């Protein structure tokens, strides 16, 4: 097995372009398509210069979820007309207007935040008008030291659609491009079998287990390293918010790499040449990305036929698990279905793939 790893490392040293290009393209695509703003929602805001509207603006600027761009009212109107996918807020003395072409969970949450800010400031002004600043300071201190805490939660969190453009792009393109990286590395098994290297290694007292384990473990490591590089770049350099789920993301990625590796092995067990394998993997990678939610959230897909096919895509399991432990803040127990399916499918495809490869090898030798 050590010899296999040395040979694969030498090949990687001679031809590192695949790993480098797939990693770089993941970073570029995810960074550009996420708007390069981390996980914050870009929000256009204008005020009528009243005291209340300015205080609401100051409160919104303290929110970590929003990246505010302050404009005049006319500039806001013109920008919204030119860019229909942007969200704007016009703050007045007693009212506000949200300018958006679509109704979404993001717009609803923003509206609740603005209303809450107006109400809190109005309550403060009423207390000050009646009892003065000292009275408000007492009330404010009492609110901070309240004896109970009210927690709000949806009755069914799984039915709420939450969207984070930065993580959608990051996870989607990361899972898509690593599919190619792992598949290309697994193809070395087929190449060795066709060239006769596999049989010469078996004659050198290297067991089948060592041969498969050497190739597959190296492919697994390469895929996992690529994903970790992308994750660390976005988390610690770009500053993408992963909602405290970084270690969960890493563990889920390890499951996904195992599934893609097993699927790639299954594909090469069905073909005769590396070129045939490359064509099939290229077609399936694009199809799996489309039906698995890598390019766009499946929540916006209206076709029941496409949604029914999502279970065929390895990318779907990884994408859903990653979004659940980050955007939705769920635990591993909540995504156990996706993890179990990835583990089960990986085991099944490994067994079937190796069995088919060995039977083909036996038929090839018997025909000689």
TrEMBL record:
Its main location: membrane. Keywords: Cell membrane, Membrane, Transmembrane, Transmembrane helix, Transport. The keyword Ribonucleoprotein does not apply. It is found in: Cell membrane. The keyword RNA-binding does not apply. It is a multi-pass membrane protein. PANTHER family: MEMBRANE COMPONENT OF ABC TRANSPORTER YHHJ-RELATED, MULTIDRUG ABC TRANSPORTER PERMEASE YBHS-RELATED. This is ABC transporter permease. It comes from Psychrobacillus mangrovi.
